[in-house]
Design goal:
By secondary structure, the chain is an alpha+beta fold. The chain contains 10 helices and 15 strands. Helix 1 packs across helix 2. The two termini are 33 Å apart.
Length: 383
């Protein structure tokens, strides 16, 4: 259930001293081949962290032999010296592993605007390399946690091949891409263009439709590495579905671990004129703080759903809108529907269905409620 579920990969996770609390904070994932194919998707935030800029360049070559990941510092908004730190990280990993720095991806997560303690990080890479193991996936997943309460791993199996992965993320979860740090691995024999196609389609309908708090990170990275160690080349559609399955599993784990959340909200927009309309409406509902507060208070306030729909450019007629909360159609034809007292909101998952009555397309967006715990956690994050 990790990045080492696929053959041809080793991993490690250690405490290098980057975090003041002494928790694990440095992970290493190594592709032992024979193939070193890779693809990646990154944040669309115009303010990008140094490791994102570095790894974007690495991916242009279509090969990644190792990934160095650290928690405890984002290395974002740190200027030219921060980029030099990322370069030095890749160089150190290349030196220790006998690889090329141009094939070493780097990922960082943590507080923005603070330089990394390179006097701890670089020796930590040497230590992590000594701990590399085919059973080190869980330790690597633990080492990349920040405000995560649990580590997140997933796996999908094909006919003689596997896709595995790990993710971190609990805050700054919003589309565009990819809401967190993710490393996916496979022992299928797939080239870089094949990986890229599968990854982009998977992230489009999974990570890109998680919108917990509307905040887009500077460090979001999703990587997919292929070792080819199984010697099997799956059919493209089958492989893409396995990648999507792992991404969907990890995305659901992110939602369940979102900072301060007490409710997971599934927003399904149906009968839209286009998929884009469905996604736009879903995101508008997901980012409506009044609605998120109402869900936290277990109040089926469907008027807030309609008001969110009304801010979009989607095609619909106001007097044809329908809204259901946990299966109860509380709004019919833009007005009062079934008795709202019939809605049971006691449980963790809340399902909202918005029917635009404008076509046949649909989309699902996931979000969370807005809680006092979320406000407290983020007011104290830098301390």
């Amino acid at each position: 259930m990790s990045v080492t579920a696929a053959k041809g990969f080793t991993a490690a996770g250690i405490a290098a001293g980057i975090k003041d609390n002494g928790n694990p904070d440095l992970a290493l994932v190594v592709n032992t081949g024979p193939r070193l194919a890779a693809a990646g998707v990154f944040t669309s935030n115009r303010v990008k962290a140094a490791p994102v800029l570095w790894t974007e360049q690495v991916l242009k070559g279509g090969q990644v032999s190792a990934v160095v990941l650290n928690s405890g510092g984002a290395n974002a908004c740190t200027g030219p010296l921060g980029f030099q730190d990322t370069h030095a990280t890749a160089e150190k990993a290349a030196e220790v592993l006998g690889h090329s720095a141009g094939e070493v991806a780097v990922c960082s997560t943590g507080l923005i605007g603070v330089r990394l303690p390179m006097d701890r990080l670089l020796p930590g890479i040497e230590e992590a390399a000594k701990e590399l193991s085919a059973y080190g996936g869980d330790k690597a997943a633990i080492a990349i946690k920040t405000t995560d309460t649990v580590h997140k791993t997933a796996v999908a199996e094909g006919a003689g091949w596997v896709v595995g992965g790990m993710a971190k993320g609990a805050g700054m979860l919003a589309p565009g891409l990819a809401t967190m740090l993710v490393v996916l691995t496979t022992d299928a024999d797939v080239d870089a263009p094949g990986l890229d196609a599968a990854l982009r389609e998977a992230t489009r309908t999974t990570f890109d439709r998680v919108d917990s708090d509307g905040c887009m990170s500077t460090n979001d990275t999703v990587l997919l590495l292929a070792s080819g160690a199984s010697g099997t080349t799956p059919e493209a559609k089958e492989f893409a579905e396995a990648v999507r399955s792992v991404c969907d599993d990890l995305a659901q784990q992110l939602i369940r671990d979102a900072e301060g959340a007490s409710k997971d909200i599934r927003i399904e927009v149906v009968n839209a004129a286009s998929e884009d309309d469905a996604v736009e409406v879903g995101r508008s509902i997901a980012r409506n703080n009044l609605l998120k507060c109402a869900v936290h208070g277990e109040d089926p306030n469907w008027g807030r759903v309609l008001s969110a729909i009304g801010t979009t450019s989607a095609a619909f007629e106001p007097d044809r809108l329908n809204v259901a909360i946990n299966g109860v159609w509380v709004c019919r034809d833009g007005s009062v529907g079934e008795d709202r007292e019939l809605v049971d909101m006691r449980y963790r998952e809340v399902r909202i269905t918005a029917d635009l009555a404008a076509g046949g397309e649909s989309a699902v967006i996931w979000t969370n409620d807005l809680t006092a715990d979320y406000v407290h956690e983020n007011s104290a994050y830098s301390s």
